[in-house]
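Tokens for QacE family quaternary ammonium compound efflux SMR transporter. Go.
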Amino acid sequence: MKSYLALSIAIISEIFGTTMLKLSDGFSTVLPSIGVVIGMGVAFYSLSISLRTIPLSLAYAIWSGAGTALTALIGILIWNDPFNLLTGISLLIIIGGLVLLNSSSHAGQAAEHTPAK
């Protein structure tokens, strides 16, 4: 459970860092630029902690997929990035893929712990 908390922190801090990247105006604004470094540093550190028990393929897929979907939503809600049917479908596919990947990982772990007959 601690690993999924660390992964959640990694996702949140990556979203923070990416948002600060937008505000940094090409690293020409100091405070948002510092926010990028801190956000991404915390994100990678937290991701590395989560990798102690979560498989790399699963952790990275969740981290990058959730970060992508949530960052896209922030862009739509805060900076009026374009949103249309294709954007909505794409976000649903990302989220659906994360759910399926997580489900298949848990099914694989259950199969590993089932005694052979």
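The chain has one domain: 2-112.
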